[in-house]
């Protein structure tokens, strides 16, 4: 099977969140199942710099102008990935991140930048690159969601299309005046096309046009067809019926491997957890925490309302009063960042804060902390809890989306059967979170129970193996159609 994956970010080249991890890991998992994946992504400066530093052979392929901008494709194999890098300097050669400038403000022409990615993906899917024509086009999130729209609007033969929702909160909605610039037939300005309450809806259009919609956990698939969880698209998603499938994410277990992780102080395994204490001591030193025997709880996340991190900030004093130390790594809403920085100022040797994201540091936190707090108000899948499971850093999670699908709560029966892998609480509010913290602390204080939980967590299958088989079966079924 030849699959063209179209994504706005791909680990290890460019990453702002879990989308990049999925786009980077799924191709390798599919390779052993007959899936030959080539990933198309924009040629951001950081991506082009990675190509320049590598010794890989880069082939520049011509491409007709895309939405009026000169374009070409750089074909390369890098970091274990087959890549089509869309090189449009006018759209992608700029300072900042993939979506915003150095000041954190969204680029005003993001509609054009990602319509161009979708348009180029559709062209390649229909043979714009000599000798290449995929069986499946797999688009990820709103940034690539117009690719199925462009294909459906064409009279030429096209591959089957899959669109994955990684987070329904981000839909790519823009004013109607951009529609004439999208190079789409007038007929697509309709309720069955990209028109969405008088605006252009990138994700909405893709959800109509694609052959199958997937999202990143079974529970999230159930949540988004409800009025409360559908964010205005629940009716459309209900209408897709069996063509909406929830497939839980996995992680790259080679990159996230506590036995051989170069970023951590000491390797360890479920069979031998003793070396893990060296990572805890190292984490204390890195964050300037008081060295003692009590637990360290951690946060590694975007610091946003969606992630429920205002709840953690709100109970910092109560957490510290229980003898728990807290480390926080992430960035996001200024008010939440400020609340954690204030907690650090008040408790400098008990609360450590690092504003920003650092990939190796996130590994060290998972390897050294005892528990990781994930009180999300909604969570399509979540990868942080999977990293926690892999590293024996017990997840304390809200009962939503993929968090509920991937963590086994430490209830009486699960603890007795040595099957518990974390603590689940509901609803996501301060009182419930504090109750979960207390329950986790009680489990930690029983060393035998805690070690069994860590071992069970580390033995959880968080790989892509099962989910990749589901994706491969989905692709094959579509090809039969």
From TrEMBL:
It comes from the Bacteria. This is Glycogen synthase. Keywords: Glycogen biosynthesis, Glycosyltransferase, Transferase. It catalyses: [(1->4)-alpha-D-glucosyl](n) + ADP-alpha-D-glucose = [(1->4)-alpha-D-glucosyl](n+1) + ADP + H(+). Pathway: Glycan biosynthesis; glycogen biosynthesis. GO terms for molecular function: alpha-1,4-glucan glucosyltransferase (ADP-glucose donor) activity. Residues 2-238 form the Starch synthase catalytic domain. Its EC number is 2.4.1.21. It comes from Jiella pelagia. Synthesizes alpha-1,4-glucan chains using ADP-glucose. InterPro entries: Glyco_trans_1, GS/SS, Starch_synth_cat_dom. SUPFAM superfamilies: UDP-Glycosyltransferase/glycogen phosphorylase. Signal peptide: none annotated. Gene3D superfamilies: Glycogen Phosphorylase B. The keyword Glycosyltransferase applies. Belongs to the glycosyltransferase 1 family. Bacterial/plant glycogen synthase subfamily. Residues 290-442 form the Glycosyl transferase family domain. ADP-alpha-D-glucose binds at residue 15.
